[in-house]
Specification:
It contains three helices and four strands. By secondary structure, the protein is mainly alpha-helical. The relative contact order is 0.14. It is rod-shaped and about 100 Å long. The strands form two sheets. The chain has a two-stranded antiparallel ribbon with strand order 1-2. It has helices at about 45-60, 65-85, 95-130; strands at about 5-10, 15, 40-45, 90-95. The chain has two domains: about 1-30, no CATH class; about 40-130, no CATH class. Bound molecules: zinc ion (ZN). The site of zinc ion has 8 residues, from loops.
C-alpha cells in the first residue's frame, strides 16, 4: 500500500485519497481549513480623523464657526469610513469609532447652535455693561 497518495481520515480512520477534499465515508473535511484570513483588519482610513474632528467640534463649539466646520468635516469623514467598510468589509473595521465620530460631530453641531444665542446675549450684556 502506497501511503503517499492516501491519508487517514482523522475522524473515522478510513484511508482516503489525498486529493479528496472531504472524507467520502464521513464527509469530514480533510484539508486543513485555511487559516481563516488571519490578516489583521485595518481601521477604516478616516476613522481617527473623523473622531478627532467630532471631539474638537465639541471642544470648540463655543467659538461657533470652528464648531460648525469641524462638525461638518467629522460627519463627512465618518461617512467616508462607513463607505470604506461597506466596500471592503473584509479589510476594514472601526464602526464603533465611526459611530462615536458621528455622535460627537452631531453633539458639536448642536452645541455650536446652542452657543449662538449665548454669545449674542453675552455680547449685548457686555456692551450694555460697558456703557452703564
Ligand atoms: Zn472519515
Amino acid at each position: 500500500m502506497n501511503d503517499d497518495t492516501k491519508i487517514k481520515c482523522p475522524y473515522c480512520g478510513t484511508f482516503v485519497d489525498k486529493t479528496e477534499e472531504s472524507c467520502p465515508l464521513c464527509s469530514a473535511p480533510l484539508k486543513p481549513t485555511k487559516p481563516a484570513k488571519q490578516q489583521s483588519k485595518l481601521l477604516a482610513p478616516t476613522a481617527i480623523a473623523a473622531l478627532v474632528c467630532g471631539i474638537l467640534s465639541i471642544s470648540l463649539s463655543s467659538a461657533i464657526i470652528p464648531g460648525f466646520i469641524l462638525s461638518g468635516i467629522g460627519k463627512k469623514k465618518a461617512q467616508e469610513g462607513y463607505d470604506a467598510i461597506a466596500a471592503n468589509p473584509d479589510t476594514y473595521i472601526g464602526e464603533g469609532m465611526l459611530n462615536a465620530a458621528r455622535i460627537t460631530s452631531k453633539v458639536g453641531l448642536i452645541l455650536s447652535i446652542v452657543w449662538i444665542p449665548i454669545v449674542i446675549l453675552y455680547t449685548i450684556f457686555y456692551i450694555w455693561a460697558l456703557n452703564y
